[in-house]
Amino acid sequence: MKQIPELYHKKVLVLGLAKSGFTAARILHGLGAFVTVNDSKRFEENPEAQDLLNLGVTVICGRHPEDLLDEGFELVVKNPGIPYTNVLIRSALEKGIPVWTEIELAYLISEAPFIGITGSNGKTTTTTLLFHMLNQDEKKPLIAGNIGTVASGVAEKAVEKNVIVTELSSFQLKGTVDFRPRIAIITNLYESHLDYHGSIEDYNASKMKITQNQTAEDYFIYNADQPVLSAYAAKSKAQLVPFTLKGKTEKSISADDEFIYWQGEKIMERSKIMLGGQHNLENILAATAATLLWGGTKETIVRVLSSFTGVKHRSQFIVSWKGRKFYNDSKATNALATKSALEAFPSNVILLAGGLERKHSLEELRPYMDRVKALITFGETADRFAEFAGECGVPVIEKVANMDEAVGQAVEYSADGDTILLSPACASWDQYESFEIRGDAFIDAVRKVTEAND
């Protein structure tokens, strides 16, 4: 781990704990900073705060004092989920105090280079796929970021021969200053998280911070089939590596109906790729390009693509039972993600959807609702989903209270040859703490139904 002299004896406020805040506070303390942690959870119920206090970190729990910044802090490191409308964050920015997320700290302390992956959809699949490709090619990758492993904790232990493959959200990227990945990937850009960012312009600008510090020595891989992303990419100083699904190109990476290509040469037949869906082909092209740019081999790419079946909660195949196939796509937290899932199934879908009400439009789903033979809906958006499905002519619409009821009704309305798909098009927080917990509830409900009726 690199030492950062600029942080020695610097007064730093870490706002919000969870995994990233705890790790950042511990590392900053080890670097010699004077660290204060402020978290809303009460100290008695906060083991992370208790551990930090034992290390000598100042801890303020159970409240966010509005005069906290009067203590003369020179830097704030915030949990990515804390919005910029937060009183303390607003005040820090007004005072000219830098506000980071721990991704910036991870970059500064890391001896290893970064590959950064972001996008509205597909970033977890792309990150995981790229990690597997590099790992099988013995490139010593480490995996980190929004995928579940705190980047600064990974960077703390990384050495020069490693490469840190990092999934990055717009929340994390917005709080970066010097972060510079050697390879940056944006899978796609769609309207998302406007409740946090306030505007599509701020959301897009936050995503584009992934390439803002890149130079001509670096690479920027992006979706050339999206005009908005191509326009943003033109402003990057990195070497541009566009990908397209619109047919073979002699430059960069591309795909047609039969093959994927690198610089006009065939890599493999699409029919041999295990990961299904048009949306996943974008992820495959991005990961393949990054692997080749990092010195990976085509042979390894073919081997991985011939066996990789997906990431948990991302169009994850669960089981085939009495002619019905069950898929868990709980990560689909917006309509665009659910649209991508529906594209993979041409007909006879029993769709389980609904969740937190963020007023997102469902119109992206309309052209694909003729594939849905029954909608089982739940959560805060249940009424709006039911009304929308009725407008689209879905023949069966049921509103339910929980996942067990949803799976039970889906089985009741399904037949041999049908697909039962959880793809909510909404965040989970009205009923579940995370999309992972929601997906696990679906898997558990499927297990109970299939085991009870074998």
Automatic annotation (TrEMBL):
Give all residue intervals belonging to the Mur ligase central domain.
117-290
Q: Which residues bind ATP?
A: G119, S120, N121, G122, K123, T124, T125
> Might you give the EC number(s) for this enzyme?
6.3.2.9
The Mur ligase C-terminal domain covers which part of the protein? 313-426
Biological or metabolic pathway of the protein: Cell wall biogenesis; peptidoglycan biosynthesis
Could you confirm whether the keyword Transmembrane appears in this record? no
Query: What's the protein name?
Result: UDP-N-acetylmuramoylalanine--D-glutamate ligase
